[in-house]
Amino acid sequence: MKKEPQRQEDRAISLLQKRGMMRLSEFLEEGITAATISRMEQRAAVNQLSRGLYQLPDALLDANHSLAVAAKLIPNGVICYGSALAFHELTDHVPPYVWMAIGPRDWRPKISRPRIEIVRFGPKEFDKGIERHIIEGVSVPIYVPAKSIVDLFKSGQRPRAFHKAPAGLAQATQAMKDALRQRKATPSEIAKYAVEAGIWKKVVQPRLETLTIDA
Q1: How far apart (Å, rounded) are the C-alpha atoms in residues 79 and 69?
Q2: CA 70 – CA 118 distance, rounded (Å)
Q3: Which helix (H) or strand (E) holds 171?
Q4: CA 72, CA 47: separation in Å to the nearest integer?
């Protein structure tokens, strides 16, 4: 009887070594009880990153650690806006929280830590331009540079009283300039997402033409 908790703890540690971080529900699916995880936490054998999310105390933390945590807490979300641009190294601005997009009908969770700002994207814009990156063993969905720039332009048009806008048009323009210079996005990619978002002619086209006229 005394060996069973130890076997579960060994399995929990092995799983965390492979996956980087795990939710309590994932442990339960593997036959590891909540009581086992609680005992491990009390002995500092695991760290609780957020409610129901755990990692080994000696895990190597990536610079984008918060993005991995957000992806585990909101598995149906996508890293967006300034958080996506920061990941792609297209802004010097460090967002005070992780920006995450969810679909129009997705459940909106309440998370106390880390700080996550959740925004709803429409059905035509949510599932486009997504690529996955492995961060601390976690597959993290992040919008590609061109899509992130266009999303920032679109959000920058909204009154801040109505929406907690992540940045203004100036920052979106600078991100577009850097993306073109670093060849992380092409004019055609940006134009495609801008057309789909309905902000091509009035917002993105004149700024893009100014940046590429002498290129």
Answers
A1: 11
A2: 10
A3: helix 169-181
A4: 15
> Is the Cβ–Cβ distance between 45 and 120 less than 8 Å?
no
Cis previous bond, 104, omega within 30: no
Region class of 68: left (phi > 0), else alpha (psi between -120 and 50), else beta: alpha
Tokens of 76: 């149906």
Of the candidates 148, 140, 132, the one whose C-alpha atom is nearest the C-alpha of residue 185 is: 148
The partner residues of 135 in beta bridges, in order of sequence, read 138
Q: How much is the pTM?
A: 0.87
Whose tokens are 């830590």? That residue is 113
How far apart CA 111 and CA 176 sit, in angstroms, is 31
68-118 tens-digit pLDDT: 999 999 999 999 999 999 999 999 888 889 999 999 999 888 887 789 999
